[in-house]
Amino acid sequence: LSDELLIKILSFLPTKVAVTTSILSKQWRFLWMWLPNLEYSSCLQSYHSNSSALGEFIDKNLPLHRAPVIERFRVTIVAVPSTACLASLKTLRLRCLTYEHDDSLQGLLDMCPALEDLSVKFGGEHSMGEITFVVPTLQRLSLFLADEWEFDGYVIDTPSLKYFKLVDWNYGRHDIEIKDMPKLEEAYVDVVSSFLKSVIGSITSVKHLTICSENSSDLLGQLLKDSPNLRLLDISHMEDHGDYERNEMVCWNQPSPVPECLLWSLQTLNWSRYFGRPQERDIAVYILKHACRLKKARIIADTQEHDVPNLKMITELAFSSRASLF
Predict the structure, then answer these.
(1) How far apart are CA 59 and CA 57, in angstroms?
(2) Three-state SS for 58?
(3) Measured between alpha carbons, how far is 49 from 209 in angstroms, rounded to an integer?
(4) Are strands 163-168 and 186-191 parallel, antiparallel or unpaired?
(5) Where along the chain do its domains lie?
(6) pTM of the model
(7) Residues 6 or more apart in contact with residue 318 via CB below 8 angstroms
């Protein structure tokens, strides 16, 4: 077999296992040094007796690496050394971790001066105080906060952000502080309604917005007024929010005067799981009536969850007045 094919085979193995193949023969001796993907773990059984073994293993083997480009570098580690520096790291994924101190996460982020894409999922029984995300270079941020997780709040300071996804269905009392995101282009916001107001003022430059119909109806008018550059609006009742009967829209504050985004920028409206109830109908009719630049409206009815006939919903929208000629 050629070296290229053997390297391809080795790329499917954990790095530690790939290194052990160097004893098989002379041909195999240096092949592992050319692997484009590296994966290290301190959770393997051989590391349990010595917490520093992983660091020693990486220190010995990483300098020997000969691949011109490392495409993926993955480390599973219990405690991140305070001296660590990931100077070229651009993408970071963190899932259900236990942080030793409230500032441990920010300490890790400070080790990544070139970070552009961050995804963090909080959950489990571990509790924290205030969490901070201060990353000047960050362009994409995805945060998932479980409803049972305990924390005091979070601060987000990411002035270069272009994409922001926030899923916060934690009903526990917590503070939210989000600094201005002047470069933001796309946002996915699924937040408990009582906390949504803390988000609105920071996403005013957004062009593509996805929101949940269940928790945003009372503030949708404010969202439209504060998003003058909005071009695409996605509205949906998120499927994991439980029984719609208990969580239907209860308030729609019709904005006056008409928001700038409806007059000058909104081109696409997508609404999935449209139930056709009075508040939803009022919102849809208002947008269709005032969106002068609208080119496409796609509204998908969900007739399985309620008693409003599909034909009635279609008729109501079809005969409503429209500002554009799409």
Answers:
(1) 6
(2) helix
(3) 49
(4) parallel
(5) 1-79
(6) 0.78
(7) none
